[in-house]
Amino acid sequence: MSRRPVTSDRSFRSSYPGAPVHRVTPLSAAGQGTGPALGAGAKRRVTIRDVAKLAQVSLGTVSNVLNNPSSVATTTRKRVLDAINTTGFVRSTAAHQLRVGKSRTIGVVLLDIANPFFAEIVRGAEHVLRERDYVLILCSSDESAEREQRYFRVLEEHRVDGLLVSPVERDLAGAAALMAHGIPTVLLDRDGTTRGLCSASVDDVRGAELAADHLFELGHRAIAFVNGPATIRQCTDRREGARRSTRRAARRGAALLREVVVNALTMEHGEGAVARLLGLEPRPSAVMCANDLLALGVLRGLAAAGIGVPDDMAVVGYDDVAFASMLSPSLTSVRQPKYELGVVAAELLLEEVAGLPHEHRTIRFEPELVVRASSTPGSVVTAALHRVGTY
After folding, report:
1. pTM of the prediction?
2. Which end of the chain is more exposed for a tag (fewer CB within 10 A), N or C?
């Protein structure tokens, strides 16, 4: 037969030296259940009852100290706080959340949490939200719509106060559904105008135009574009920007853009794309990538193939993450204001969470091309002109 655990004078005093003990109370009588005794070395979770007993106050007084400390006398409040520190009591956020209807948590669902671009966005958002006593719950969809939907469900079940989302879905149906369920939602790095959602984004069409314009202006005529899946809106916008630039360049002379599509925006997929881009006819003399991780992979693949950068092949990335300037050669890249994106998105979300009358807004930043050594003009331009001729 299992024995009921009993709190004795001796065990209580050994746990909390110097604490007054008035009576011996079976844990089952204190609402702790009637299960078998805990095994050797196991510890029972400290409850608010333990705090009240040690401080010699009522449960209501402990609750007031936790939730409305100004309503409790200073000496009593100090005694309760001392008891909390002594016992190591941790309040149940879930229980408190049920009472007040707020969790002080914000869900963040990103395309790829391993991408330094998103890490910098989160840093900006966290700076704003931390000052308002919010905690972030980070999730990575890994560019999977199914995983994204699962995180939406889980975060909704956890009653987060709001969501920051860099969505996989092109139609934004999942994000719109969250708003319909009463969960304030702001888009990161995507325009939410079509769904009436607040958003903070960058003009990706213009950003890709800057990258392609740069290469055509250097004299390149055949450019490869290593791009991600069409299910990701940023990839389709950047493709459109590259095509616009190519059409303009074609009016001035020969210009060709060849797209190499990969399944994910990762370094590994960039490296894997090199064999395909080197097999293109005519072979391109320059390559632009949909993000810097792809560009890093392309640089590795070109080095392994004995292709010099920029003399044999110029390379341009997108995002201008921290490592771009540290590579050898340093990477030319389209800079996005990552930290500022996070700051603005968090500020928009706080407006939504406050529930005050508020007009949904789209904040769009302009990108900037940062030219570095990976696209520096060299003998590659003249050689390419002789090799490909006009087409």
Report:
1. 0.73
2. N
